Amino acid sequence: MSQDPIAVSPATGNTGAGSTGDALENLLQENRKFPPSAGFAADSVVKASEYAEAAADAPAFWAKQARGLLSWHKDFTETLDWSNPPFAKWFGDGQLNAAYNALDRHVENGLGERVAIYFEGEPGDTRSYTYAQLTEEVKKAANAFESLGVAKGDRVAVYLPMIPEAVITLLACARIGAVHSVVFGGFSADALRSRIDDAEAKLVVTADGTYRRGKPSALKPAVDAALTAPGHTVGHVVVVKRNGENVDWTEGRDLWWDDAVGGAAAEHTAVGHDAEHPLFILYTSGTTGRPKGILHTTGGYLTQAAYTHKAVFDLHPETDVYWCTADVGWVTGHTYVAYAPLINGATQLIYEGTPDSPHQGRWWELIEKYKVSILYTAPTAIRTCMKWGREIPGRYDLSSIRVLGSVGEPINPEAWMWYRDVIGANAGKNGEKKDDPAPIVDTWWQTETGAQMIAPLPGVTATKPGSAQTPLPGIAVDVVDEMGESVPNGSGGYLVIREPWPAMLRGIWGDEQRYKDTYWSRFDSMYFAGDGAKFDDDGDVWLLGRVDDVMNVSGHRLSTTEIESALVSHPSVAEAAVVGAADETTGQTVVAFVILRGSAVDDADIVTTLRNHVGKEIGPIAKPKTILVVPELPKTRSGKIMRRLLKDVAEGRDVGDASTLADNSVMQQIAESLKK
Ligand code: WTA
Fold first, then answer.
1. Ligand 1 atom 23, closest CA
2. C or N: which end of the chain has fewer Cβ atoms within 10 Å?
3. Architecture (CATH level 2) of domain 130-293
């Protein structure tokens, strides 16, 4: 963090900036508000009173949720032990089983015939699992893993595509107390190996491959490559047959899923594990050096996962069909695909492929087909769909949609409004509109927080485009300056969390000191999230991007998010990414990479037009010095723009490690487009 990262003086980044400052304020002073309809509010599962209840006694509030939402093998007597910060224990002497909570108890409660998972493969193959069927599969997988020598506390590396076996594997591990470590399918063999080594995994669960844009895409070869060099801890590799491609086989080590799991007994008793028993490790992306394994445990994590999933999506499990588009390789696919929906007894859709295969209407086709009522996706996906055009979702009946969620990065007001109008208000394929569009919940959280932390409640909050709005009940969020003092509304600062929360990370695997240094040493007794934020005059939270993405231009502090938001608000721009490039005179300059909408490509003056547009939206200081029109932006498989690579381009350096890109030809395409 070499730059003074964010506007933190009481006067904010707009100090004496005159009209610039005013304009900056205006952009983040969103005046539109959309209160819930009376009908939605009346049926909402969570009421406004929960804020006051949680504020009066947050641990008591969480204890109530823990007992109300989960079934315990052994009840707890102590809610929170914070005697040794930053190491929290929630529900410490309680015992429970995550898989029992996600599966068996629903069957015991007569919900065995409810569909747990609808699966749609990219080629169009389908499967569905009732709760009874899913329970049986997980029991078999638990028996299979145990017979391969996996015991409580052992680590299992998971390198799978988005198929039901991914969820089955995670729950089978949880059932036997093994700790899963999912490695995203987009990571290389080297990255997989370093994660296997760091966690000392005993078993790897993978697939021959998957499908990407109509073509088979391999996974097993990366596992083979990762395990070529000796010295690893892996005894067995279980391989799901998914795309049927030929794979190399190591006798004695490799087993087909169908043999190992298919042949296992269907009876397995779930025993209670301690509430603080490790549930999973998930390595955070984008870090350099040794991978950082974020550790989550059982009772607190599941409590907050289940509560937020119910409250933020207003879940009615008897009638809703829920779809989270996240891959199991990142935290959203853990909390809001593998765990929370099943704990809550919901019916969910899992889709294997990309949104444009075989056509750009695939997602909307799926929503129409399965009558999806809750959609949870990322702003980058929304902006991609904007780029493809509103007529594509317009061809489908999306009237089943009730709640729309967003996660992963700030959603600019432009994309928010598009999401509302084009998806949330769609009442049929002939252009019919709902009077009362589906509420949008913009959810802020992190791998480290385990579950949502800041989000509107759709039946309670009047939503505001671009703001994640309100800390959830029982969550103590603040914005502070360099010294750790709370800043007034309207001022930028660092987002912190003042009190422990149930789903908080319990550490970094094998590195206590790094956990303390990274999150708890910047400010005394506060969790440092690494994000810039501010409260607006209504007290709503605006996320301003990672503090390391914030630029400092001529002493003015500018957020990449604000400039991107301004660029995307221009009708010619489909997507934009902004970086600060080092500059001798001004500290940094603003460099923007933009993807134009089809209709705008021929406008020769587009760069001038856009600079002026940003000047108008924010102020002259924010005008990008350079605007580069590019065909694509470099993104990770979880959809995050890799600004680090763009910064390399902007600063004329060789492009650094691009191994985590979803499509590694993108940097090449950008380089070529800039030569022209
Ligand atoms: C960013 C994803 C603004 C933020 C769940 C955070 C967001 C990082 C939002 C965590 C949001 C996530 N608005 N920014 N609604 N959600 N972020 O660990 O910078 O992949 O620190 O977890 O994403 O990313 P992670």
1. 408
2. C
3. 3-Layer(aba) Sandwich (3.40)
> Does the beta carbon of 407 sit less than 6 angstroms from any atom of ligand 1?
yes
Residue nearest to atom 14 of ligand 1 (CA): 409
Nearest CA to ligand 1 atom 6: 446
Residue 68 pLDDT: 98
Atom 19 (ligand 1): residue with closest C-alpha? 546
Query: What spacing in Å lies between the alpha carbon of 19 and ligand 1's midpoint?
Result: 31
Question: To test the ligand 1 pocket, which listed residue (182, 330, 446, 479) has its Cβ within 8 A of the most ligand atoms?
Answer: 446
**Per-residue confidence (pLDDT) for residue 601, from 0 to 100:** 62
Question: What phi-psi label fits residue 12: left (phi over 0), alpha (psi between -120 and 50 degrees) or beta?
Answer: left
Given a contact cutoff of 8 angstroms between Cβ atoms, the answer to whether 638 and 184 are in contact is yes
Q: Using the mean position of ligand 1's atoms as its centre, give its distance from the Cα of residue 406 in Å.
A: 10
How far apart are alpha carbons 247 and 223 in whole angstroms? Answer: 11
CA atoms within 13 A on the CB side of 174: 33
How far is the C-alpha of 299 from the C-alpha of 65, rounded, in Å?
11
Neighbours of 16 (CB within 10 A): 9
What are the pLDDT digits (tens) for 340-389? 999 999 999 999 999 999 999 999 999 999 999 999 999 888 988 998 99
Give the start-to-end residue ranges of the domains of the chain: 38-96+297-473+491-518, 130-293, 548-675
Query: 546: Cβ below 6 Å to ligand 1?
Result: yes
| CB 273 near ligand 1, within 6 Å | no
Is the beta carbon of 445 within 6 A of some atom in ligand 1? Answer: yes
**Is ligand 1 within 6 A of the CB of residue 283?**
no
Atom index in ligand 1 nearest the CA of residue 443 equals 15
**What are phi and psi for residue 30, nearest 5 degrees?**
-80, 125
Average pLDDT over residues 182-204: 89
**Lowest mean pLDDT across 35-44, 225-234, 560-569:** 560-569
The CATH class of 548-675 is alpha beta
User: 221 CA distance to ligand 1 centroid (A)?
Assistant: 31
Q: pLDDT averaged over the chain?
A: 90
Give me the mean pLDDT over the 399-414 stretch: 92
Whose structure tokens read 């940097």?
A: 667
DSSP 8-state secondary structure symbol assigned to residue 572: T
Q: Which atom of ligand 1 is nearest to the CA of 545?
A: 19
CA of 639 to the centre of ligand 1 (A): 11
pLDDT of 661 = 80
| CA end-to-end span of the chain | 34
Please determine whether the domains at 38-96+297-473+491-518 and 130-293 fall in the same fold group of CATH. yes
pLDDT value for 548: 60
Q: Out of 301, 531, 547, give the residue to mutate to test ligand 1, the one with the largest number of ligand atoms within 8 Å of its CB.
A: 531
DSSP state of 13: G
Output the CA 408–ligand 1 centroid distance in Å. Answer: 4
Q: Collect all residues with Cβ–Cβ distance below 8 Å to 259 and sequence separation of at least 6.
A: none
CA of 546 to the centre of ligand 1 (A): 9
How far does residue 467's CA lie from ligand 1's centre (Å)? 13
- Half-sphere exposure at residue 306, Cβ-oriented, CA atoms within 13 angstroms: 25
Domain covering 38-96+297-473+491-518, topology: Rossmann fold (3.40.50)
Q: Check: CB of residue 76 under 8 Å from CB of residue 66.
A: yes
3-state secondary structure of 539: coil
Q: Which of 138, 211, 150 is nearest to 181 (CA)?
A: 150
Q: Comparing C-alpha atoms, which of 296, 289, 286, 372 is closest to residue 331? A: 296
- Nearest atom (ligand 1) to Cα of 406: 15
> What are the backbone angles phi and psi of residue 284, rounded to the nearest 5°?
-80, 145
Token code pair at residue 94? 């309680």
Pairing of strands 215-218, 209-212: antiparallel
